[in-house]
Amino acid sequence: MAGHSKWHNIQRRKGKQDAVRGQLFTKLSRDIYLAAKEGGGNPETNFRLKTAIERARQNNMPTDNIARTIAKATGGIQGVTYEELMYEGYGPHGVAIMMDIVTDNRNRTAADIRHIFTKRGGNLGESGCVAWMFKREGQITVHRGDYRGTVDDLMMLALDAGAEDLREEEDAFIIVTSVEAFNAVRTALENAGVPIADAELTYEPQTTVPLAGDALDQVLDLIDALEAHDDVQNVYANVEAAEA
């Protein structure tokens, strides 16, 4: 759900990549692993783990895989140890890119990601080089077709729970929260019976680079290559699809 705005609208090829079952399960497993390692193996008291498990189930990940991953993270089973990192860089045409990384070998991952950038006209930067262009926020998605109330009802419920904004898209409502209010807003919506399609913390670009045609394709090719790497969990970019 990286952005759910101009960036969300040009994620045209991600579905094709996520259809690669093994690769998708790898990313989902790492989400679960890190959530359980950070906050324990009980999804009722670990909101991040609950969200990761829900996403895994939505993508038909076997229950045994989920349980085994939680056991590895909490010490019940010996396994590989992962760490979370944030990589930053520039794509073609000055587009800022940030990546959530989960790896068991940071030297290997850095070399791989640097090669992907260089091969496609970008460069992997230092920590902090583009982070200032993004805002960390919570985004909760409610599909229009699933919600039976009015947009005013949803907005008032979200704002009363501490949300900052509600954005309307063609097929969904995006409720925006601060990082601190994210859990409270989601819980309030769930308790009110609002059908939540997705909910996560993301990075929203504060300024965008409008591109079209070949220039846009060059940036999307880089993003596709980054997303295809097993160690890249999420990619955030400040590119905007402009009219040619």
UniProtKB/TrEMBL annotation:
<dbReference type="GO" id="GO:0003677">
    <property type="term" value="F:DNA binding"/>
</dbReference>
<dbReference type="InterPro" id="IPR029072">
    <property type="entry name" value="YebC-like"/>
</dbReference>
<dbReference type="InterPro" id="IPR026564">
    <property type="entry name" value="Transcrip_reg_TACO1-like_dom3"/>
</dbReference>
<dbReference type="InterPro" id="IPR017856">
    <property type="entry name" value="Integrase-like_N"/>
</dbReference>
<dbReference type="InterPro" id="IPR049083">
    <property type="entry name" value="TACO1_YebC_N"/>
</dbReference>
<keyword id="KW-0804">Transcription</keyword>
<feature type="domain" description="TACO1/YebC-like second and third">
    <location>
        <begin position="82"/>
        <end position="239"/>
    </location>
</feature>
<dbReference type="InterPro" id="IPR002876">
    <property type="entry name" value="Transcrip_reg_TACO1-like"/>
</dbReference>
<dbReference type="GO" id="GO:0005829">
    <property type="term" value="C:cytosol"/>
</dbReference>
<dbReference type="Pfam" id="PF01709">
    <property type="entry name" value="Transcrip_reg"/>
</dbReference>
<keyword id="KW-0238">DNA-binding</keyword>
<protein>
    <recommendedName>
        <fullName>Probable transcriptional regulatory protein SAMN05421543_10844</fullName>
    </recommendedName>
</protein>
<keyword id="KW-0963">Cytoplasm</keyword>
<comment type="similarity">
    <text>Belongs to the TACO1 family.</text>
</comment>
<dbReference type="InterPro" id="IPR048300">
    <property type="entry name" value="TACO1_YebC-like_2nd/3rd_dom"/>
</dbReference>
<keyword id="KW-0805">Transcription regulation</keyword>
<feature type="domain" description="TACO1/YebC-like N-terminal">
    <location>
        <begin position="5"/>
        <end position="76"/>
    </location>
</feature>
<dbReference type="Pfam" id="PF20772">
    <property type="entry name" value="TACO1_YebC_N"/>
</dbReference>
<dbReference type="GO" id="GO:0006355">
    <property type="term" value="P:regulation of DNA-templated transcription"/>
</dbReference>
